[in-house]
Amino acid sequence: MRKSILVTGGTKGIGRAIIDRFAKEGFDIYTCARKEGDLVALKKSLEEKYPDIKVLAIAADLSKKEEVNSFADKVKSQVIPDVLVNNTGIFLPGAIHDEPEGNFEFMMQTNLYSAYYLSRAFAKEMMQRRSGHIFSMGSIAGLTAYPNGGSYAVSKWAMLGMTKCLREELKPHYVKVTSILPGATLTDSWAGVDLPMERFVRAEDVAESVWAAYNLSPQTVVEELIIRPQLGDI
Question: Signal sequence span per UniProt (predicted)?
């Protein structure tokens, strides 16, 4: 029976790299993003390159609880994925004391609440099945405070805490939980920055790390994986 992976925010950056890596191994793909056009292009590309896999790509704004739940229901009507990657996220720079009103709520809803609701949507079935792997895409910002991190850093610290709790809850049921904590990764979030590519982590390297963590034996789990640029944080 073919395996499946659900990756939120799958049309660009780390999410896209993870999808490509698992599709290469024959996994069926379930994903979402805000822009319909990007999803159509992703689905077409994957189906041309990997004609034997199934691809479900749904437009959804995961900053909204009702759309998270609607997306989860559509996936659950077809499959309980073997792998769930909570990758959706947004970065808006600013300081806690003066960032624009609404930044905190928007980033918490997008970066944290979406992962909370999706994990809840699939955890019970994974527990009953006694298998599954949930990855949460955190950040170095969830380990190290820095100026101008603001609500983004708060959301990533909270994501790490939630993932630790989920790990403790699910480990007796043989469901694995892993926090991925990348440093500066060459994605659209860094577009326009005047720095050489060599200063960034490659999205493909993050995807390879997720694949490697998934492929460990059933009795072993990577709880946290920190991935930094070789020359250090930016």
Answer: none
In angstroms, the Cα distances linking 114 to 32, 96, 133, 184 are 12, 22, 17, 22
Number of helical H runs and strand E runs in the chain: 7, 7
Q: Is 150 helix (H, G, I), strand (E, B) or coil?
A: helix
Cβ atoms within 10 Å of 57's Cβ, excluding its own:
22
Where is pLDDT greater, at 90 or 188? 90
Cα 146 to Cα 164: distance, rounded to the nearest angstrom: 22
8-60 tens-digit pLDDT: 999 999 999 999 999 999 999 999 999 999 999 999 999 999 999 999 999 99
Residue 31 three-state SS = strand
- Give the chain's domains with CATH numbers: 4-227 (3.40.50.720)
Q: Could you tell me if 47 and 23 are in contact, meaning their C-beta atoms sit under 8 angstroms apart?
A: no
